[in-house]
Amino acid sequence: MDAVPPAASGPICLEKEGAALYLSVNLLCTLLIWAFFALVFLSNPRNRLNQLCCLAGMLFSLGTFKEFFYYDLGPLLTGMVQPEGLVRVLYAWMTAGLYLCAMPAALLFCYCFREAREFRHSHPGTRALLLCVPALALAAAFPPWESYALQRTSVPFWVCFCIYNLTYGVCCTVLMVQAVLRERDPAVSRQKRLVSAVMLPLMWYWLITIFVFHTFQLYPLLHLWQGCSVLLLAALGFYLAMAVRGGMMGVRLKIVRYQWDSEAQTAFRGVHFISHAIRKDLTKFSWCAENLRRHLDPPPPEAEIIARSARHLDELCGRVSLYSGELHLSPAPHRPEELWAECGLEGAGEVSLSCPPGALLLCDLTHTAEVLRNLLDNAREAAGEDCRVRVEVRSGEKLRGVPGRFTRLSVSDNGPGIPKALQKDLFLPFTSQKAGDRHMGLGLFYCQRVMQAHSGAITAQNLPGGGACFQLYFPERRPPQ
User: What are the residue boundaries of the Histidine kinase domain, all occurrences included (predicted)?
Assistant: First the structure.
């Protein structure tokens, strides 16, 4: 996660043409580190282990951030308001903070990781202060504000920091292995193995590519530290996968398959429950009305009122169950004449039919007849006594945005048309402009569900001369199952 900055007199000098890639890798690594450890922290912000893990991760991110700061932001600041010396001083302090503090923070995390059970709060106490003693001694030998120059000129600098950080790395590894081996709870042991599998490869890759390569002056290999971006991506993906499968470090992600009409389904479950409860009491009302008619002569008028209301409520519950229940279609080719007979057009008033000879509709006869009956009822109620309805069938039609050919069945009336305020929500459940207790606003929503189940569609529009036109589109071929 770190590399020595280039200098004309130093052992490393980057080529100009490689700067763009170099900068992009620095920025990518920094963002990946921040995203990964922020996710760990947010998994359980109150847990001490998650806090220490995030702290160590943020300290490690100083490596890539200082490279991005020096190579990208540094020249910009130098050209605008900042002298170059200040940029180097800030770079030096960030380098010292990384080399001195990152591994002690990691060791503190590993110690608490070994001692804690189920990621409960742990209190490291004075051990945190003891970890600062070697760092203070090293800072006294190599002043942090001189880190920029020491990286280029001092071999002892790299030897001492290599021994210092590798020692911490070995201690961290021992503590994490002990944490796994000592754990007797299988669930907690699995969690600790997962955390070790994520953290240890990242830590050792950074230690080797920075301190070992610099100490032994393996200059051609120095930029291998940029491979941390690949490891970070793998670690992030592994973390998310484990969080989904069984949970990791205090978080468990759950994938929920969301159904777009879930709100309507929830409402329909309530409607079905109410309908079922009403029908249970309706049998009692009908029984009471029948007994009043049988035992009283003449029967009181209240008996007929009760019987009529019971029939009305039973019919209403039946239509609600039909319109909001689960659809089971059996599409088959049907002649329009079969559909007319099924829905009973003879009692629909003045209805004109227009269809080409031999036309067929690939539809479910029962549900499609109910759709057509619903549209005809709406037309009669909208137009009144002078209702005139035109039903037309045309084959080979296209539906915008949908491949294939459709048979279109149009139902037009001479009513007032669809109110503008209702056009947007026309096919939503419980939407109706009709008055009275017979209308619950489920008819057009049911029509839409039936057409969608046919892999078709229903559209509505106002006619130029007045009236409304509903168009039903039926695929001419069966959709692939």
Answer: 273-478
- List the structure tokens of 7: 């200098």
Residue where the block lists tokens 């069984």: 246
For residue 298, whether the previous peptide bond is cis, meaning omega lies within 30 degrees of 0, is: yes
Distance of CA 307 to the CA centre of its chain: 52
435: left (phi over 0), alpha (psi -120 to 50) or beta: beta
Q: Report the C-alpha gap between 37 and 49 in whole angstroms.
A: 12
User: For the chain, what's the residue count?
Assistant: 481
Q: Judge whether 211 and 161 are in contact, CB under 8 Å.
A: yes
> In this structure, how many other beta carbons lie within 10 angstroms of the beta carbon of residue 99?
29
pTM comes to 0.48
Angle, helix 132-141 to helix 84-115, in steps of 10 degrees = 160
461's tokens: 């529009």
Confidence grade of residue 7 (pLDDT, cut at 50, 70, 90): very low
Q: What is the DSSP letter of 113?
A: H
3-state SS class at 203: helix
Structure-token pair, residue 240: 């998310």
